[in-house]
Structure formats: C-alpha cells, structure tokens
Specification:
The protein has about 450 residues and is an alpha/beta fold. The protein is about 30% helix and about 20% strand. It has two domains: about 170 residues, Flavin prenyltransferase-like (Rossmann fold), CATH 3.40.50.1950; about 220 residues, CoaB-like (Rossmann fold, 3-Layer(aba) Sandwich), CATH 3.40.50.10300. The structure holds ligand PMT. Ligand PMT binds next to helix 10, helix 12, strand 16 and helix 13.
C-alpha cells in the first residue's frame, strides 16, 4: 500500500504541474480512486474528479472534495452557466477512468454521451487511460473484449484488469489494478502524449518507435511458456521456458492492433495490458484451450514449449524415496501444432510454429515445418546462453513452407517478435508467391 502521508513533490516527475481528470464509475473498487487521487497529488499533479451516479453509490463526493479541495462534478446540469459540460475534459492533460465498468467502456466505444463523464470523454482529446474492473464473465464477454479492442485502436491505454479476488467471493481476471499501477499508466500516457485518434488515422507515435497497425482487426492466438506434466502431487516433468518469447509476441501483436488471446503455461510474467490470457499447466490443458479458441483465430503462433510426453499414471500421493527409484512410464502428448496443421481447411488460420533445436538447427526446423504443416516456423538454436530459453534475447531463422528463410540476428525478444509478425503480415498479404519481407534492416532477403 502506498504511503499517503505528506510527500515532497518531485519536480522532474512528468505529472508535476499537470491536470489529471479522474472519472470514477460504479464498482466496489471505487474507493481505490481516493488513493489514486492522493498519489497523483503526491506526484505534483492537480486532480479533478467526475463521479458517476454509480460511482457515488460506492464512495461519496465529500471524500474527493476533501482530498482535492475542489467541487466534484457529478451531473451535466450542474453549474451549466459557469462551466460547459465539456470544459473539464478540454483542459485536462490526461483523463483516467478508475474504475471503468463494462457499461462505461461500452458507452465510450459506442460514442454515447448521456452523463457528465461520457460527455467529457467524448470531448477530451488528451491521452485517455481506462482501468477496467468487473466480474470475470463480464470482462471475458465478446462485447466487452470488442469494446476494449476498439478503444485501444483509438489510442486509449487500457491498464489491467488484474487476476485476483473480486466481489462476492469471486476470483479471476477483472480486478481493478492497484492505484500505483494506474498512476504509472497515467504517467506513461502523459509521456507518450498519445492522443485518441479516429480509426482511420495511423497509430500515435509514442516515446518509442512509431507503431504500425498492420494487424488491426486480426485475431491472434499465441501460446507461451512450458507445460508441466505431473509425476506426483509435488513433482513434474517440465522445461525451462519462461514465457518471455510468447509474451513478447503478445505485446507486439497487441500494439500492432491485433486482438490477442494468450494461452500460457506457468509463468511469472505480467499479462500485457489488453491481452486475454488463459493459464494452463499441462499439455492436455493447453491442447483443450487451443482448440477452444481456434475458431476465433486468424493467426496461431505456437511459441510454447509443450512437453512431448507425460507420465501415464501420476501418483496420487508423494513418491517416497525409501520405496526405491520409481520407473515412470511415459505416453506421448498430442502434438497440438501438428494436429492444427493436419486439420485446417484452406490456409486459415495462418499457422506459425517455433522449434527449439540444439544441432542441425535449420535442417531440423525445416523438417518440423513440413511434418507439422505450419506456414512459418521460427527456429531457435537453444544451445547457447544468449538465445532461446529463459533469456531476454533470441536469435532465430524464420522458415516458410515455400522455401523462404529470414534470419533475425541476436536481438531482444520484442524485436524478434516484431520480425516474426512482419513475416506474418507479409505472408497474409501475399501468400507464398508474394513479397516475403516488409521489414528493412536486420532481415536478410529470403529465397
Ligand atoms: O519461453 P522462453 O524462455 O522465452 O523461451 C522461448 C522458447 C525457446 C520456448 C521459444 O522460442 C520456442 O522455441 N518455443 C518452442 C519450443 C518447442 O517446444 O519446440 P519443439 O521443437 O519441441 O516444438 C515444435 C513446435 O511444436 C512448437 O511450436 C511447439 O509449440 C509445438 N508442439 C510441440 C509439442 C507438442 N506436443 N505440441 C506442440 O504443439
């Protein structure tokens, strides 16, 4: 929990001297908005609050008025002569809606303006941060996901939700991010200065390189991390995959406009904002999850390290050392990629596999590409200590089923992810006979 006592204002904080408008909508977590307001003030920002009717059922205007020393606006009709209903949004440097209910997201996505907050949001041209909070079913509903994707396309920054305890004893994705996380998101939005843009305008140029939106509207299913195959309740067969490569792909695809579903083996990594994540443990669970989401995917990228075998009969209690060295009988797991390759009709979805090889790297990758029926196969030599498992960097060759190859020299996994997505975009645009690479620089000419 943040220290909310008096704190010196750091002059170099990007929030210092900036006006931040905090929209508080109706959710049990609305009380956390008071902490966010305090944190904003500690960072030197001036916080104004708009409280919706729903928000006011959970936390009173007096709380925010006490914190900010200014009136909290609630209705369009208040002070109509003194201040226009869009004025707060116009003069804000950033707007953050914390928490943002499913209803608020839907209104904003649909351009509705039936109360002071929605009117203000429609009129504001500054960066917008939205922190969704709702029950898991509401968050995962296609309508909400569609609205979130639409809002992100327009340049809004979506922070969270977290996975954790919810109201009424529920738990799962949908929990409001902590105020400190929201504060960071507001700061980042201010620094990047990314304005909200209409759909047909290219994505904003942020602090980093210009973002391409060449996956706009594309549904990308990504697997990441390793699977664990139980031997007994405490032991498993596993591998060293951290999930970094798959998570980097998820974040890169999201930034290029894709709707991303991530199926992850056990991983400590934080879910990239706006990515829908499903956690699995075993290869069989990953198999089920991939099949469940396959129909809604235009592109499938299998970066996960799936165990090829699992113990036939995991022990129900812990194997004891004094019972001698156990013989563990193994049985093959389904080969998910090969199954998808064999089952698809036509060229949809585009299938991208990975291959972790230690010797005869490219030949091994080429054989896997053919055997598994993928369109593209990303081969990484995992014998070194600067590429492949667990590290932040990778070095790959991207093979395609038309015989093309693109080398990506050692780079951070985000850069490698971008190069893989370049190939995805090029392949989708033109297929095996068209131009093969649209990225300059580090790519070597294929074929
Ligand atoms: O997670 P990191 O620490 O960042 O490490 C990244 C990585 C090294 C795990 C990643 O870059 C990588 O190479 N992933 C694939 C690892 C792997 O399982 O390779 P493979 O050669 O065993 O499998 C080939 C392909 O078949 C893969 O796309 C794999 O997901 C898929 N497969 C394998 C077995 C199986 N039962 N089902 C599958 O779908």
């Amino acid at each position: 929990m943040a220290d909310l006592g008096a704190a010196p204002v750091p002059a170099d904080d990007p929030l210092a001297g900036r006006r931040v408008l905090v929209g508080v909508t109706g959710g049990i977590a609305a009380y956390k908005a008071a902490i966010l307001v305090r944190l904003l003030q500690h960072a030197g920002a001036q916080a104004d609050v708009i409280l919706t009717r729903g928000g006011a059922r959970f936390v009173g205007a007096a709380t925010f008025e006490g914190l900010t020393g200014r009136a909290v606006r609630q209705e369009v009709w208040e002070d109509i002569a003194g201040e226009s209903h869009v004025a707060l949004g116009r003069r804000a440097d950033t707007v953050v809606v914390y928490p943002a209910t499913a209803h608020t997201l839907a209104k904003l996505a649909g351009g509705l303006a039936d109360d002071l907050l929605s009117t203000t949001l429609l009129a504001a041209t500054c960066p917008l941060v939205l922190a969704p909070a709702m029950h898991t079913e509401m968050w995962e509903h296609p309508a909400t996901q569609h609205n979130v994707a639409l809002l992100r396309e327009r340049g809004a920054s979506i922070v969270g939700p977290d996975d954790g305890p919810l109201m009424a004893g529920d738990a799962g994705p949908g929990r409001l991010v902590e105020p400190e996380v929201a504060l960071d998101a507001v700061r980042a939005a201010l620094v990047s200065g990314s304005p909200r843009l209409p759909d047909d305008v290219p994505a904003p140029v942020g602090a980093g390189p210009a973002r391409r939106r060449d996956l706009l509207g594309t549904r990308v299913l990504i697997t990441a991390g390793g699977t664990r195959e139980p031997i007994d309740p405490v032991r498993y067969l596993g591998n060293r995959s951290s999930g970094r490569m798959g998570f980097a792909l998820a974040a890169a695809a999201r930034d290029r406009g894709a709707e991303v579903t991530l199926i992850a083996g056990p991983s400590e990594l934080t879910t990239p904002d706006g990515v829908l994540r499903y956690d699995v443990t075993t290869a069989l669970e990953m198999h089920t999850a991939v099949l469940e989401h396959l129909a809604a995917a235009d592109v499938v990228i299998k970066a996960a390290a799936v165990a090829d075998f699992r113990p036939v009969a995991p022990a129900s209690s812990k194997l004891k050392k004094d019972q001698g060295v156990p013989t563990i009988e193994l049985t093959p797991n389904p080969d998910i990629l090969a199954e998808l390759g064999a089952a698809r009709s036509g060229s949809d979805p585009l299938l991208v596999g990975f291959a972790a090889e230690t010797d005869e790297v490219e030949a091994g990758g080429r054989a896997k590409l053919q055997r598994k029926g993928a369109d593209l196969l990303v081969v990484n030599d995992v014998s070194g200590d600067d590429a492949g498992f667990e590290v932040d960097t990778n070095r790959v060759v991207i093979l395609d089923r038309a015989g093309g190859r693109v080398e990506v020299p050692l780079a951070d996994k985000r850069t490698v992810a971008e190069r893989v997505l370049d190939r995805v975009v090029a392949w989708r645009a033109a297929g095996p006979t068209g131009p093969v690479a649209d990225a300059a620089g580090t790519l070597t000419e294929p074929r």
